UniProtKB/TrEMBL annotation:
Keyword annotations of the record: Oxidoreductase
The keyword Iron-sulfur belongs to this UniProt entry's keyword annotation: no
Family: Belongs to the short-chain dehydrogenases/reductases (SDR) family.
GO molecular function annotations of the record: oxidoreductase activity
Species of origin: Oncorhynchus mykiss
Protein name per UniProt: Dehydrogenase/reductase SDR family member 11
KW Signal (keyword) present: no
Pfam families in the cross-refs: adh_short (PF00106)
Amino acid sequence: MFSAIKTLHQGVDVCINNAGLAHNEPLLSGKTDSWRNMIDVNVLALSICTREAYQSMKERNVDDGHIININSMGGHRMVPSADEHFYCATKYAVTALTEGCGKSYGKQRPTSEPRLAEQHYLVTVFHMNLTNGLYNY
């Protein structure tokens, strides 16, 4: 993907990481494949895109580029449903990676502000299982 962007547009100045995948797989009884899938999408893909975007900006001496990571409230607060605790762990990883990267490479203090998205987005992410629990945020 990034090589195609380099060919077509010379590189990346802004990267918006907006991946999110949730499986209802509890820590004590969930399926390893589902956990791995969440880690691959929510943590690893975001990390790879962050690395590639940063390298693209660095190669071209872009000093005003942006890497924006869209996260979940589950990356800032634990949800009440045990089915989503592993998902929340992946989103806490996104919070840690975002803040760590910003402190290491950003010119200014990174911003990590939890904000509630529209209800239809959250219902989609949580497959209707946490509709009542979401209001506990």
